[in-house]
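hey so i finally got around to running the thing on that chain from the lab meeting. sorry it took forever, my laptop kept dying and i had to restart like 3 times. anyway pasting the input first so we r on the same page abt which one it is
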Amino acid sequence: MGRVSGSEATGLEEAVSFGSGKGLVGILHRTAPDAPRGIPILILNAGIIHRVGPNRLHVELARALAARGHPVLRFDLSGVGDSAPPRSSDLRASVMADVSEAVDEVVRWTGAERCVVAGLCAGADNAFAAALRDPRIGGVVCVDGTTFRTRRFHLRRFLDRVSNRRSWVAFFQGKSAVWKLFFRLPSRILPRRIRPREASTGSRRPAFYGMSAATREETAAGLDLLLSRGVRLLYVFTGGIRARYNHATQFVDALPEVTLGKGFQLEYLPEADHTFHEREQRRRLTGFLLEWLANGKEARHGIR
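ok and heres what got predicted. didnt touch it at all, straight out
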């Protein structure tokens, strides 16, 4: 792991370069000599946001984790922040290669056999995908990652709109989504041969930053695989994505075929926004993560 000069390299925090050609850049958070030794953590970019994270969320998380004995590497993926451009036009392959090299480095640096990978938004999806490919990842933290709507979601969304004054104002002004649905109704009910010609889009996956997220079926299969391997999972959702997640148990409700046992934990922060603008919500997220690490087997995995 190469050193990089910079203003962030202070005390127990050191700017480093690593990976093929030393093209990946990150900040290494070392633990104090007298701190208990815990499993190392990798923090991935939230989409295309620099490694500090939205509202410096990743900085605060890393420092809190290091203070509790967990070495942390928060780094920029290829093409983000200070890291070099991607080596491949296949974005998924590039990201997976970057995470694998980051795991290589943190395992080499700490001597640990396993690590935890955490991410927000697209970072959560990347963490999940990486864990499926790398058996050295013993824990995954997904914050506002891919989720799926349920009947209860749609019912709650309907009730929210009915009770919202702004929704009624938009309705009478002709700006409501109800009117858009009404005008599209003929194309839904007319026989196919006389419907207006529409472009065929087929079945598409949700996509973020040019990367396709997992489908519901792929997510269910992935969860089964990770839990069968003993990988611990912490999922956190916020009120900031209310348009696609609006109640505490939605993620579990959407995947009834998956048996989620002791290795799985789900938390809901309805007062938090997607980028954790409020300091109190950042503290609550940090608290969830520290408690999850302390209560699980991975927290007791010592560094040799």
